[in-house]
From TrEMBL:
<feature type="domain" description="Peptidoglycan binding-like">
    <location>
        <begin position="3"/>
        <end position="55"/>
    </location>
</feature>
<dbReference type="InterPro" id="IPR036365">
    <property type="entry name" value="PGBD-like_sf"/>
</dbReference>
<dbReference type="InterPro" id="IPR002477">
    <property type="entry name" value="Peptidoglycan-bd-like"/>
</dbReference>
<dbReference type="Pfam" id="PF01471">
    <property type="entry name" value="PG_binding_1"/>
</dbReference>
<dbReference type="InterPro" id="IPR013423">
    <property type="entry name" value="CHP02594"/>
</dbReference>
<protein>
    <submittedName>
        <fullName>TIGR02594 family protein</fullName>
    </submittedName>
</protein>
<dbReference type="InterPro" id="IPR036366">
    <property type="entry name" value="PGBDSf"/>
</dbReference>
Length: 242
């Protein structure tokens, strides 16, 4: 089931989700909550099995989903991951300028005075934006600019699609780190990570499992049964995340 299908169904039933663009943003979440509230469901903005059943019952505008259609990275409940995927290609501005979109993320988090340029590492800022812009009840670390602060985010979980993944950088004891989202793994000891500040951009990169510190899951979202997504690696390991 695609996000666009859910948006189309919400619109067809009179719950305006904003643009039918396949992006799980605030307007779509608000529409889901309105629908849930009027159908006796918990208005949490998460499209789980009960919400899907109610949304598609007797409404053939979009084909009803099957359980297998809700697995992997197309799961509409992975709203923070879909926001991250939408931002792939966002880059630092070379030279003296800054990318205003990255600075806007800092303003959203109340960090405008602390985050003054995109030459400051922004992997934690990127994760913070993706989480807080889609899960407005979710608490983020007080020092979300620090990648290692995300070791205390939400609840612990084994690596699984959409999980927040934390790694050390330079050395385990350096206090420096990197954070992004689980996007698969290979058979030879590496995780594929969707993250910011990876070669100065939002991109997919491979990080060695020997650098892995832990995976976390949003506390306001029911945790899934963890599962690995196996991907064939065609690139080397990343060491450029700052």
């Amino acid at each position: 089931m695609k996000i666009r299908d859910i948006q189309q169904q919400l619109a067809a039933r009179g719950y305006t989700p904003g643009p039918i663009d396949g992006i799980w943003g605030r307007q779509t979440i608000a529409a889901v909550r309105r629908f849930q509230g009027r159908h006796g469901l918990e208005p949490d903005g998460v499209v789980g099995p009960l919400t899907l059943a109610a949304l598609f019952q007797g409404a053939p505008a979009v084909a009803a989903p099957t359980p297998s259609a809700l697995t992997g990275f197309d799961d509409p409940g992975l709203v923070w991951f879909h926001e991250a995927r939408r931002l792939i290609g966002t880059r630092e501005k070379p030279g003296k300028g800054d990318n205003p979109e990255i600075l806007d993320w800092a303003s959203e988090q109340g960090l405008k005075s602390l985050y003054t340029g995109d030459d400051i590492p922004w992997c934690g800022l990127f994760v913070g934006h993706c989480v807080s812009s889609t899960l407005d009840r979710e608490a983020t670390p007080s020092n979300l600019l620090s990648a290692r602060a995300w070791e205390r985010f939400g609840i612990p979980i084994a690596p699984t699609p959409g999980a927040v993944m934390v790694f050390w950088r330079e050395s385990r004891g350096s206090g420096k780190g990197h954070v992004g989202f689980y996007a698969g793994e290979d058979e030879a000891g590496a995780y594929r990570i969707l993250g910011g500040n990876q070669s100065d951009s939002v991109s997919l990169a491979w990080l060695g499992k020997d650098r892995f510190l832990g995976a976390r899951w949003p506390a306001t979202v029911p945790p899934p049964v963890p599962r690995a997504i196996k991907v064939t690696r065609t690139a080397g390991l990343s060491w450029n995340e700052a």
